[in-house]
């Protein structure tokens, strides 16, 4: 199990953990003061939560099938358990819960793979619970498939100030997968003043934390990139400001 907590990340809102289960394995958690979205990245699991039996969730056996994910929202103050029907990868996305939403299945119905961007900035999105989906108190969750040789989370942008409607403060994690798995992707996290400027080669299964700044990703020729994004902050709205040196690209392609 990989786990990122607000404490371990040095921030206040986003939590992310990942279970790689073998058929027959069972995992269980309580949500406490946090709301949760369970994402069946790969494989199938029988899930109970918030006092209900949700049956078997999951369909795609390989994330790069790009079919809509099966997910489950659970509010704070509940618990859940999952028993793997097949080998599976289960992502646990968390943020502060306020008791404002009921447990519910999310997807596969209602999730459609959608193209975004132009040229080699084209990528494909499975929105799980973004701003238009009023499923959560705090969480914003989406999947992104970036074709080989393309860029995403680009033109570079940031959402690290609490100044709505100009910009919102949202912490963010990226859970990366590569196809073929032997490949790598590139992610840069940097601020306008250069105090934070890290460029990382990400391998299959790695997680990148974005506490602030811009955070573009690149997929090298020959390697397709997937990532699962989790965002949360004081306001469940996604408003960003582009990096000054790429603002012209965003305006041109609008």
From TrEMBL:
Pfam families: KduI (PF04962). InterPro entries: Deoxy-glucuronate_isom_IolB, KduI/IolB_isomerase, RmlC-like_jellyroll, RmlC_Cupin_sf. GO terms for biological process: inositol catabolic process. It comes from the Bacteria. One of its GO terms (molecular function) is glucuronate isomerase activity. Keywords: Isomerase. PANTHER family: 5-DEOXY-GLUCURONATE ISOMERASE. This is Uncharacterized enzyme involved in inositol metabolism, IolB.
